[in-house]
Amino acid sequence: MPGRPPTDAEPPLLIACALGIERFALRGRGRGGAVAGGAGPRVVTLRTGMGPQAAERALTEALSEGSVTERSPVVASGFCAGLAPGMRPGDVVVAEATRGHQAAAPETPCRDNGPLLRALRERGLTVHSGLLCGSDHVVRGAERAELHAAGAVAVDMESAATLRAAQRAGGRPVAAVRVVVDAPEHELVRIGTVRGGISAFRVLRSVVPVFHEWHRSLLLPWR
User: Fold this and answer.
1) What is the CATH number of the domain that holds 96?
2) What is the pTM of this model?
């Protein structure tokens, strides 16, 4: 594991996801988690494993090992289940806030998501914004409708835990950008299934440059 970067170095962007197929999409052309072409800031792509406990543990370890800095922005990304009727695989969800699965869990606001929203919409993608809810299991049927009625637009198992751990380790920009692979009218047998989610995979791969642009925009005030 590399040592802690110099304090004056540009902070790497940390992209966290749960599944191997998500990491494959999100790594783009880089090797070992770093963006190819060495001229720009580094991007570390972390596979956390599935579930909120695994995500929180992996993120906490990554932030303490020195491969990223206390200023490194964190993006939770990968696939999600859409909750609103009419959502389709390949739609993008940009969280205004995330909330964990526990009763009365606090929300983590995503205050720096404006550039992400604009850039994704400029690419012609269908983008939804709102509360991204956490869960510790795959959500279906009536439970999906209940979460939507409570104000959430989408649900996944790792984003809330990832951003909570990132904020606990120090103030930094955080965002959650997920691609819908499972929706009310398009339920999959399981969330990791590739068949039926190929459009979601292609969209997830296509949004990686937007994360890089967001990262560069965040660096400007620090220069």
Assistant:
1) 3.40.50.1580
2) 0.85
